[in-house]
Amino acid sequence: MTDNQLRAIAKKIRVHVLKMILDSKSSHIGSALSIVEILVTLYFKILNTDPANIDDPDRDKFILSKAHGSASLYAILAEKKFFSLDILKKYFVNGGILPGHLDKLPVPGIEFSTGSLGHGLGVGIGMAIANKQSCLKGRIFVLIGDGECNEGSIWEGVMLAAHLKLDNLTVIIDYNKIQSFGRTNEVINQEPVIDKWKSFGWDTIEVNGHDFNELINAFNKKQTNSKVIIAHTIKGKGISFMENKLEWHYKSPSESEYKTALQELEIDDQ
After folding, report:
1. Is 90 exceeded by the pLDDT of residue 182?
2. Which end of the chain is more exposed for a tag (fewer CB within 10 A), N or C?
3. CATH number, position 192
C-alpha cells in the first residue's frame, strides 16, 4: 500500500470521526484526530489481524489505552470490515453498540475494555508475558496518551516490561502535548521523555506521528527489548481550527464547523 493510499484512508477516517462526533454531540475529537496516522499504519501495514478469524491465537493484539480516542479506532475497524460501516451511526448514542470509551463485549476487534487511564499498558504486558509462555507469535501494541503518563501504573509497567525483556511488546505514546486541562508539560513536566524510557532499558524511537514512512520504519525496526515509539502528534490534526487547541479535547463541532472541516478535507457535505 502506497503513501498516497494510506493518506486517502486517513482522510476517510477523519470524515467518519467528524460525522460520528457531530451526530452524537460528544467530545474528544482532538484526541481522536491526533492518532489517525498511527492507527492507519498499524491496521493497514503492521498488525497481523483478520476480521474473519478474530480469535486466532497467533494474532497481533492492539490496546487503545487512551480510550477517549475511540472514534478513530471504531472507524478503522469498520474500514477493515470487522463490522459494517453503518454501525458507526450508532456511536455514543442510546441503543448503540459503540460507547464513548471502549467495550470489548459488543464490538468485534476490541481486545480489551479501556477508559480509566493507566490500565492498558499493564494489560498489554500481561498479554505479552502470556504469549511468551505459550510460545505464541502474536505481538502486543499499546497506544497511550502523554497525559496518561502521569499515572503511576504506567511507570510500574515500564519497569517490569524492560526487566522481563518483552521484545514482543511495543508502546506508542501519542505525544500531542495537550491533556484534559492544560499543556502536558505544564501539568507535569515529562521532559526529557525519551531519556526517561531509555533509562529503564527500553528500545526508544522518536517519530513524526503523522508521517507514514517514519511510523512504518519505527514499527519494523528490530527490537531487543520492549520498544517505545514516541510519536510527536498534533491534537485535532487535519482540521486547522482544531489543531493544537485545548478546547477541542471536550468540545463537539457545530453544523457550520462540521461543514468547514469537510471543506478543509476537500470533501463534499455528507
Report:
1. no
2. C
3. 3.40.50.970
